[in-house]
Prior knowledge:
mainly alpha, two-stranded antiparallel sheet, 4 strands, 71% helix
Amino acid sequence: MSTNSNVVSQNGSKIGIRTIAQIGMLSAVATVFMLFEIPLPFAPSFYQIDFSEIPVLIGCFAMGPIAGAMVEFVKILMNFVINGTMTAGVGEIANFFVGCALCVPAGIIYRHRKTRKSAILGLITGTVCMTVLGCFLNAFILLPAYAKAFNMPIQALVDMGTAVNSNITSLFTFVVFAVAPFNILKAVLTSLVVLLIYKKVSPIFRMC
């Protein structure tokens, strides 16, 4: 690849037009995945799992954590344009950081040593990071933003959680019994899919 086609330098490796195209492709797939959501029996209806982090993780493993973060950013931006926002962009920003919390640590660890063991270690680390950050952002940013957007008290959201899970009686228990299991389940399912398919799809991303 010629020097003129390089647009970014990531840890000494060149990212050019082909990588930008791959980021765009993965972002488009991730945006489509965001449209298909699965409700959960232990959480209110506004917590639904999608598999949009699968293309992001693939991007992190194939092209590095910075490229993966770019896939996450473009995915969130495209979804914002298509579906708009109910939280003045706060939810989208929080979702970006939560998604990156799973994918970027996994990408960093895998980039250091590209083995299955490193991939598993990275995914476990990412799952922990995603769960911790997801709980923090939901408790202090997302849930207050949703309450404000719908002009309701936080307790009303807690009551929605109580309706499906009697263990939820406060904001703290909402985070413990709804938000944390949601993030753990999403991260684990996403990680398992990526472990199963990555080696099959990775040749597509081999750079010249």
